[in-house]
Design a protein that fits this description.
Layout (H helix, E strand, L loop, with lengths): L1 E3 L9 H20 L2 H26 L2 E4 L3 E5 L5 E5 L5 E5 L8 E5 L4 E5 L6 H11 L2 E4 L8 H9 L1 H42 L1
Parallel strand pairs: 5-8
Antiparallel strand pairs: 1-2, 2-3, 3-4, 5-6, 6-7
Helix pairs in contact: 1-2
């Protein structure tokens, strides 16, 4: 099944659309207050800006989730895609709190691959049902200090503690290295002191 991205006007997208219409309006008005060559240049710039905006809109509109028997594919707004096999999804669910409640996710621990999907796709409830049927889907609640499901999974799987241990190991190695350097410097100073005493004798 195909779940298409639903485009809608928002405060963030308004400046982009305004720039497109504004540049075209300025270009057309240039024929009334500028010479022909300047007006044509304005039109050329306006058309280039509008082309880039339309290309971006088309790419965003092409974002979708396609499910099939073995898994699903997510076509991203930047033109890339991520593929998941149902049987390789180790964790999936819906986030019930935080900054983006209602967002769903799927995580393949073997490939360390995660996708997060906000409720902006057509038939979103049906997509949730498919995840429930094919993956270990459940509700997830973020703990204090966690800003995303990625933070929650790291804490749940003990990945943060591993990172802290690595940092501690690096700090110990650095201290050992400093101690070794100090010992070498002390030995060198003792050797120089012995050589100085022999020279005086």
């Amino acid at each position: 099944m195909i779940y298409q991205y639903k485009m809608k006007m928002s405060k963030k997208s308004f400046p982009v659309y305004a720039m497109g219409f504004g540049s075209l309006a300025v270009a057309i008005s240039a024929f009334f207050w500028a010479n022909t060559l300047t007006a044509v240049l304005f039109v050329g710039v306006a058309l280039f800006i509008d082309y880039q905006i339309l290309k971006t809109i088309r790419r965003i509109a092409g974002a979708r989730v396609v499910t099939f028997t073995e898994g699903f594919v997510v076509h991203m707004t930047d033109g890339t895609k991520m593929e998941f096999d149902w049987e390789k999804v180790d964790y999936s669910g819906v986030i019930t709190n935080g900054e983006h409640p209602g967002m769903i996710f799927a995580y393949n621990e073997g490939d360390d691959k995660i996708i997060q999907l906000p409720p902006v796709f057509s038939d979103f409830d049906q997509l949730v049902e498919e995840l429930k049927e094919n993956t270990p889907f459940k509700e997830y609640q973020l703990e204090e200090g966690e800003t995303s499901i990625i933070d929650h999974l790291k804490n749940m799987l003990g990945l943060n503690s591993d990172e802290e241990e690595d940092e501690d190991d690096e700090a110990e190695d650095s201290e050992d290295s400093d101690a070794s350097d100090e010992t070498e410097e002390t030995e060198e100073n003792q050797e120089k002191s012995c050589e100085a005493e022999k020279a005086e004798e």
